[in-house]
Amino acid sequence: MKASDLSTHIIQTQAGMAALRVEWQAAAAAAVPSSLFLTWDYLHLVWAHTRQSRDEPYLIVVRRAGRLVGLLPLVRSHRSRHGASVRVLRHMAAWDGGRAGVLALIPPERIWAAVFEALRRDRHGWQVMDLRGMDESDGLLGHLHKVARGFRCEVMPDGASGHLRLHGSWDAYLASRPKSVRQAFLRRQRALERDHPQAMVEVADSPVAIAAAFERFLALEQRSRKHEAGASLARSRRRVAFYRAALPLLAAQHKASVWLYHDPQTQTDMAGLIRLSYRGVLYERDSAFDEAYARYAPGTALCAEAVRRSLETGRWRESSVPTRSMPFDERPTVSGWYDQRRYTCRLMVRNSPRAVPWFSWGIHGFWRSWRQDPVMIGVSMPAWKF
User: Fold this and answer.
1) Residues 307, 176: contact at Cβ < 8 Å?
2) Which residue, of 284, 358, 362, 381, is most buried by count of CB atoms within 10 Å of its CB?
3) Residue 202, H or E segment
4) CB-side exposure of 303: number of CA atoms within 13 Å?
5) Which positions ≥6 away from 210 have C-beta within 8 Å?
6) According to the model, what pLDDT value does residue 342 have?
7) How far apart are CA 18 and CA 212, in angstroms?
């Protein structure tokens, strides 16, 4: 874990974040592996459209011989608990199921070691670091007991995402699905083709076309059950603003598309899918279908068609669905089609409790706060402790 040849500094202003753009883009392009959720193109839009009024950028930059070799993009939020302001660090990508990874051009465990050194030097600047969506195979977790000395850490289960390696033919892939999944899909597909013979898949992947297709997706989503349950993209003003800004920009870089299952006879969109992509990986971000066509499972039909075309082109090596806390056994539309699981953790790192002015609301308030939210006042709860 020797990091004597590495230097770190923390960027805490929007101007500083903007000034890092060229280096950030170059590092993301050179990193192996890399992720869309660690790129400037994605995260500066996340920051612009999802930050709260008191949020601040908190970018831990790692350099070797002056060159940027690592970056942990965090946001510092100010939360109030019974009259006390608590400074919480969270990953900039975590708002929409992104992975809380670190951008690394050298072994990631070395970057994490440098990150924690920077956090030690800035103990007065934060009380809690809450990283959701940490991959269990991340270079940090296996070395946490070394790099995080002096902090109280807890690692908790967070969720799981589905992954599919895109190789081989569509026929071979379909034949490999569970029998019940395959039979149900084929039965509904035949019914859809019989009752709506003109239905077709439309793909919008240019800046102008994707903007119009996204508005159609929002209208479609409002006819879905997930909208009634309050879980739709359209229910979130910030998410809508983000996608309206991000999709045309990403489409211009061939990193985004909106797919619609459309019936020209009735002029109805039956299902929709928002796809992002980056360096051989497809991210199936949001999907929806019109409840009036639920008996045909048009959402499944659209996603299956997207997988089929991806297999045929051979351009992509993997398809990924967002991380969710719901067990896979309760998500048959994912578990029946995606072979691999990737489990994520939530890492809580607590600074010294002396940094939190708990005395400002007295012993009774301290006890009440601890019972309600021990994390926010720096008291450890049973978990993996280091």
Assistant:
1) no
2) 358
3) strand 200-204
4) 24
5) 204, 247, 248, 251, 256, 257, 258
6) 84
7) 29
Query: Is the bond preceding residue 108 a cis peptide, omega within 30 degrees?
Result: no
Q: Give the pLDDT of residue 146.
A: 86
d(Cα 34, Cα 279) in Å, to the nearest integer?
A: 8
CA 201: distance to chain centroid? 26
Burial tier of 354 (Cβ tally within 10 Å: 0-12, 13-18, 19+): exposed
pLDDT band, very low/low/confident/very high, at 140 (cuts 50, 70, 90): confident
Measuring CA to CA, which residue among 253, 278, 251 is closest to residue 34? 278
What values do phi and psi take at 213, rounded to 5? -65, -35
Q: Are 286 and 233 in contact (CB under 8 A)?
A: yes
CA 238 to chain centroid = 15
Sort 216 into a burial class: Cβ within 10 Å, 0-12 / 13-18 / 19+.
Answer: middle
- Cis peptide bond N-terminal to 33, omega within 30: yes
In contact, 304 and 185? CB cutoff 8 Å:
yes
Q: Give the DSSP letter of residue 324.
A: B
Give me the domains of the chain, ranges plus CATH numbers: 6-159+344-377 (3.40.630.30), 167-316 (3.40.630.30)
DSSP strand pairing (84-91 vs 128-135): parallel
On average, the pLDDT of the chain sits at 86
Distances (CA, A) of 16 to 2, 250, 371: 28, 23, 39
Q: 369: pLDDT confidence band, cut at 50, 70 and 90?
A: very low
**Is the model more confident about 11 or about 80?**
11
Q: Report the alpha-carbon distance of residue 52 to residue 230 in Å, rounded.
A: 21
**Res 370 pLDDT > 50:** no
Nearest to 77 by CA among 101, 53, 61, 100: 53
Instruction: Count the Cβ atoms, other than its own, within 10 Å of residue 164.
Output: 21
Kindly give, in sequence order, each residue whose CB lies less than 8 Å from that of residue 219, ignoring residues fewer than 6 positions away.
269
Distance (Å, whole) CA 336 – CA 319: 14
User: Phi and psi of 9, rounded to 5°?
Assistant: -150, 160
**Token pair for 102:** 């670190």
Asked whether the beta carbons of 151 and 351 are under 8 A apart, the reply is yes
